[in-house]
Amino acid sequence: MDGVLYDSMPGHVQAWHETALSLGFDSNPDDYYLFEGMTGPATIDILFNRAYGHDATEEEKQSIYARKSERFVELSWVSLPIPGAKEVLEVVKKHKLKRVLVTGSGQPTLYGSLDKDFPGYFEKGLMVTGYDVKFGKPHPEPYLMGLEKAGIKAEEALVVENAPLGVQSAVAAGIYTIAVNTGPLPDKILSDAGASIVFPSMMALSENIETLLKK
């Protein structure tokens, strides 16, 4: 969702960075693009392990993630649909393929936007969120759960990802993975993560999706 359907990652990065600094953690904004796709608690564990050498408690995770979520709302970040995303979905829908949303996010503010910005493209029963999984990306569980919900095998699916951890997750689940670089990271990070092909934008993917689906 973040970085594939919506340009929401800069807002999330700012919210994570400011929350981390307010709690006394060392924080580099670029790190959160590398962490993208992880669940909130997993990101918090990284911050704790860097600072203290151990994971956060469940209470700390809940408190810090709530604080980060509140900061994201306070920033009033306008998460607009990424150009090309709807065009990709339209081609996929035309081919009568199921659309499964697999996101590490637990940010409730964006879920209500899907019906408004992408009406008719997603079903609630075909979504995997950070609240559904025990292991977030780069573990394959999110995409394995997505396959299970869709009732298909890995070789019958393809994934569109923008984050290196998401690419790793999809590849580990055995799924053909298309990477779309909608952030500041070099293309090489996405290809090194295992992506079969890397596009510079969702618009570029929209211009090539028909060809990819015919392969």
Give your account of this protein's structure:
- There is one protein chain.
- By secondary structure, the protein is mainly alpha-helical.
- The chain folds into two domains: about 10-75, DNA polymerase, domain 1; about 85-215, 3-Layer(aba) Sandwich (Rossmann fold), CATH 3.40.50.
- Helix content is about 50%, strand content about 5%.
- The strands form two sheets. Strands 3-4-5 form a three-stranded parallel sheet.
- α9 links the parallel β4 and β5.
- The model has no long low-confidence stretch (mean pLDDT about 95).
Instruction: Specify the biggest β-sheet.
Output: 3 strands, parallel
Give the strand line-up of the largest sheet: 3-4-5
Overall geometry? globular
CATH topology of the largest domain: Rossmann fold
Uncertain residue ranges: none
The count of DSSP E runs of length 2 or more, i.e. the number of strands, is: 5
In the CATH classification, which architecture of the largest domain applies?
3-Layer(aba) Sandwich
What is the CATH level 1 assignment of the largest domain?
Alpha Beta
Identify the CATH homologous superfamily of the largest domain: HAD superfamily/HAD-like
Question: What percent of the residues sit in helical stretches (DSSP H or I)?
Answer: 40-55%
N- to C-terminal separation? 25 Å
Strand composition percent: 5-15%
Number of helices: 11
Rg computed from alpha carbons, rounded to a whole number of angstroms: 17 Å
Round the mean pLDDT to the nearest integer and report it.
93
